[in-house]
Specification:
With 250 residues, this protein is α/β, with parallel strands linked by helices. The chain contains 9 helices and 7 strands.
Amino acid sequence: MNLPKSPPPVVTAQTPSGSTHIRSFVHRRAHITPSQEQAIAEWLPRWSIRYQDTPLDLAAAFGCPAPVILEIGFGMGETTQKIAQARPGDNFLGVEVFNAGVGALLKRIHENALDNVRIIQHDAVEVLRDMIAPGSLAGVHIYFPDPWPKKRHHKRRLIQPAFIELLSSRMAPGAYLHCATDWEHYAQQMLEVLSAAPSLQNTCADYAPRPDYRPLTKFENRGLRLGHGVWDLIFTRRAPTDAASAPEAT
């Protein structure tokens, strides 16, 4: 089947936000396969949610009330698919901007009959700010975000204090935030930023063992074989009274 050529990766917002913020992505030219294009053409209307500047009714969006786990930057969707299959009682909201990744996850949703996954193709910061009501998330996954390895680019990293303050406000008390990276310096920054957030509490002394629900991807397995490290961090949202009394980070 001949399909029209896919446009370059886009951000769906067309109006200025009125303030600047770190975006959850960087524009890149990405190859998209014909099957990914076909998946977008056929399945995007069924499994995606359009960006809107008002809070989203999560139960209505999924068709059932269930704990909602937000995944920021799901890449090609391999991990999203496996976790959603293993946890059918949870709903998973994946946020990604790139067409190739969106098309790949749409294929996985269709081929595996996953009814507990939805996609928003938009900048995650604006999705959090505008679409996710405070205290509504049961969990958040941020796996292998862009490490921006050059020192002059560290300010572009997603895990920054202002972003974590916004993110934690959308988490229910007791909800978890699970980050993973294969860049040690970024892991150190993540640990520092998350530990300094008064609303969050580390579940471990520092880094966490990889939980069973996070599968190893083929790229991660290859890195481990080459001796590369991977660091997981799992924090939970304190109850408001606990956050108010939490000691300040020094």
